Amino acid sequence: MRKIIYIMAFMILTSCGQSKSAKEIEQKAPEETQIVQKYLKEEITKPIEPQKSTEQTDNKQHALSYEFKNATTFNMTDTISADFNGDGKADQAIYIRENGTSGIIIKHAQTQEEIKIGFGKSFAHMTDFNWVEIWGLVNDAETYEIIIEDGEITGDRQIVLENPSIAVRQEEAGGGIITFKNGKYKWVHQTD
Q: What is the pLDDT of residues 115-150, one digit of tens each?
């Protein structure tokens, strides 16, 4: 019984000594308190980003690796950097979806020129890219193009890729690539 009384007395004394107000803590260590408060404020104001499942990411990577030897899948919000126009400088490409339309902006590093593809203006047979679900970079030296004549698929042909190219796909439907050839960006159709 005596041990129990000693343990209880010890617990009461130690718990009383730990109950300090926030003001007392702030006075003793104001720098530490401010750092913690700043961290908590930053964590609360950070936007919550949706988590993507590994399975989804793997499927998207598989969609490109099935068709290309050297391709990388990116999140739709990622900027892709590569020398798209062959001038030796890393250009940037971003995918933007806003106000019911969408497209790709490519900014050339050397000239700072911005090329807008889509956004309601005709590029090949498309005016927007709302359908895009897979966004990536292709570094292959060649690929294929589906040939369509009079609305019918007549075959395919090999295409030489002079520079890294942008891959856009819709899951389970296909898509194509945007590549720089003969001084301008060209669509290479790869969907049946």
A: 999 999 999 989 999 999 999 999 999 999 988 888
Which residue, chain included where needed, has tokens 């964590």? 43
Report pTM.
Answer: 0.67
Higher pLDDT, 59 or 42: 59
d(CA 62, CA 56): 10
**pLDDT tens track for 162-184:** 999 999 999 888 899 999 999 99
Instruction: Identify whether the C-beta of residue 146 lies closer than 8 Å to the C-beta of residue 190.
Output: yes
Which amino acid, one-letter code, is at 122? S
For the chain, percent helix, then strand, then coil, each to nearest 5? 30, 35, 35
Beta bridge partners of 96: 103
**Is 93 within 8 Å of 78 (Cβ atoms)?**
no
* Helices marked H in 47-152: 54-67
Q: Domains of the chain: which residue ranges?
A: 2-45, 54-189
Cα 83-102-74 angle, rounded to 5 deg: 45
Helix, strand, or coil (residue 102): strand
**pLDDT attached to residue 23:** 45
Closest CA to 106 of 140, 75, 137, 67: 137
- Give the pLDDT of residue 5: 52
